[in-house]
Each structure stands twice: as C-alpha cells, then as structure tokens.
Prior knowledge:
mainly beta; 7-stranded antiparallel beta sheet; 5-stranded mixed beta sheet; 1 helix
Amino acid sequence: MKRKTLLSMATSGLMLAALIPSFAQATDGVVKFSGSISDTTCDINGKAPGEGNETNVELGTINPSVFSEIGKTSTLKPFVLQLSGASCTAGKSVSIEFDQLGNVDPASGNLKLIGSKPARGVQIQIYNDHGTTPAKIVLGQAEAAPQVATISTEKTATLKYQAAYVSTEASVGAGSGVSYIRYTLAVSYTHLRAHETLRYL
Length: 201
C-alpha cells in the first residue's frame, strides 16, 4: 500500500513539473526600454536631441604606410558638442555617456569600422580633450571620470573631443574608414535618452 502511494506521489510530481514552464530556456529576443524623466534639455550643435541629430567628424584620407606598427595613430581630429538653447539651465553640469554596444570592440575599447569594404587592421579611437593632454576613452564600459562642463549664464556649454584612426594589426589594408557611435546626454546626471549619433568619415 505504502509503495503504491509513493509511486502515485512520484508520478504526480513528474506531471506537475511538466506543467510548470522552465526558466532555463534559450533567449529568443530582447526588449530595450529608453526614455527620460527630466524637465531640462539642450540643443546639441544647433539641433534638438534625437535619433536624427548627427555630428560628422572628417578623419581624412590616410595612406596605409602611416600605420608602421600596431598602435600607430593618424593625426588627431578635434570635434565639439556645443550645447545651447532656451531650455539649457545655467549652472547645471552636463556630460555624455557613449553607447557601450553597437560598433564598439570591447577588447580594444575602440570603434570598429563598418561598411561593405572597411579598411583592414584599423579602428577609431576617441579622446577627451578638456585637459592638457588628450586622454583615450575606453569604449565598451562606463567612464570612471567622464568629461563634465557647466552651462554658462548664456545657456551654453562645450564638450571637447578628438578622434583618430589607429592600427590594430601589423599590416593595414586599404578600404573605407566609416563608423558611428551613439551617446546619451546627461544634465546634472539626470539622463536624457536621446540617441544622438557621432559619425566618423
């Protein structure tokens, strides 16, 4: 009798387990949420924040012979993100956070080139340019000390950067040198999810 009862309980347990959905399943997709909770925003380079706000950075046409060794860079090209607008609040601190995904190579902390025929053995480095010496930004992770600017009484602020090609292989092959990275503007560290885009040409 006891054996029948134990067998019945075991069978019931197996049936119940089959009815409960398993949480150790393969992922079939991801839903990403973005938005903002803020009463402050600024135009960036004269345009409202958003997916269509693109800043183009021309890195020039570089001869492969410039990259004589791994880690050799082309000439640094400066660019700025100029914040302005009636909604910019004087006295507030502003900074940006670069996207950690997309074209980022987490191994090197650089931007990978994209397109149908990208140059081989080359990536793009981004630098903070607010100090005496440009400092490389390691992409793919949060910056420990991001560049910060203060909105002036004229309701403007400037964030300064530089960028360059860098060789990642001993031999560099000719091709296009295009890439881009999205970033998020933060005002007083209250994030404004805007998906502004920097494009490198």
